[in-house]
Design brief:
One of its GO terms (molecular function) is carboxypeptidase activity. This is D-alanyl-D-alanine carboxypeptidase family protein. With 289 residues, the chain is α+β, with helices and mostly antiparallel strands. The protein is built from eight helices and 13 strands. The longest helix is centred in the first third of the chain and has 39 residues. The N and C termini lie far apart (77 Å). The chain binds zinc ion. Zinc ion (ZN) binds next to strand 6.
């Protein structure tokens, strides 16, 4: 009888404990949820899933003799512009039409407007996006001293532009000087400066500008870094913060990993770019209120 009573008590005990454990489970979930909610008021941790292809996509891709552009790196917002469009936007076009990334075109148009306010009106856009086929033909026609093989030119991505002046050579044209000085405010950098030839392995090209976007263009100008050096600098520092024109930026560098956790405050936005050599760069920004 005692044994029977003991077993019944144990059974009741097990059932009660079991129910209690089941009840505890959702309670703990709820606690976690509440603590995250509280945290989100100031800053929240966002975990982003990163596609392996992302390494080869984005505005910070390093494209040079060592790092070939992947198909994934060709801008997915290519648009064609014609002479009429260019004329309305305030510049001339060499040839009948030209293709560019829409993002890059918007930044370029804005930059030309600002230059016009400084009384510069002789911009001539000579080259934008080149397909791999066009690059191949150019390379065959002009040779390795004047063109890069298909896939190794920034023009194949849609992120680079050749800009000339209608009145003089870019080395001496006021348009060239203005672009070098103020282009970074619009996300553009002179890609192959004379004094960095030993790093870029490309001769001075006063007409070739590359879009990298803000704040990267301003940091590169401020610290006198070409893209090769800037990517290396980010990989070493891993994180940097800058304030520009009322916006706080944070730039973080990661070796590729499928999940990246970043901390954002309520009003932050972010974008992601690969560096074409195994790294992922997350840029987040918040407008100061
Ligand atoms: Zn070029």
């Amino acid at each position: 009888m005692k044994k029977w009573f003991f077993m019944l008590t144990m059974l009741v005990f097990i059932v009660i404990v079991g129910q209690q454990l089941q009840k505890d489970q959702p309670q703990r979930e709820l606690d976690r949820y509440h603590s995250e909610e509280r945290y989100a008021d100031e800053e929240s941790i966002v975990t982003i899933e990163i596609d392996p292809e992302q390494v080869y996509k984005g505005k910070l891709l390093l494209i040079n003799g060592d790092y070939q552009l992947h198909d994934a790196g060709i801008a997915d917002d290519l648009v064609m512009i014609d002479r009429e469009y260019a004329l309305k936007a305030g510049y001339a076009l060499e040839g009948e039409e030209l293709t560019l990334s829409q993002h890059v075109l918007d930044a370029y148009d804005m930059m030309v407007k600002a230059a016009q306010d400084d009384h510069l009106q002789n911009f001539l856009l000579t080259s934008g996006f080149r397909s791999l086929e066009q690059q191949k033909q150019l390379y065959e026609q002009t040779g390795s001293d004047y063109a890069l093989p298909a896939g190794f030119s920034e023009h194949n991505s849609g992120l680079a532009l050749d800009i000339s002046s209608l009145t003089s050579k870019m080395e001496t044209a006021p348009e060239g000087k203005w672009l070098q000085e103020y282009g970074p405010q619009y996300g553009f950098i002179l890609r192959y400066p004379e004094h960095k030839r030993h790093i870029t392995k490309i001769a001075y090209e006063p007409w070739h500008f590359r879009y990298v976007g803000l704040p990267h263009s301003m940091i590169m100008k401020d610290r006198d870094l070409v893209l090769e050096e800037y990517i290396e600098y980010l990989a070493e520092r891993q994180e940097l913060s800058v304030k520009l024109m009322g916006i706080s930026y944070k730039v973080s560098y990661y070796s590729y990993q499928p999940l990246i956790s970043i901390s954002l405050d309520q009003h932050s936005q972010y974008d992601i770019s690969g560096d074409n050599r195994g790294g992922i760069i997350v840029t987040s920004w918040t407008e100061e209120s």
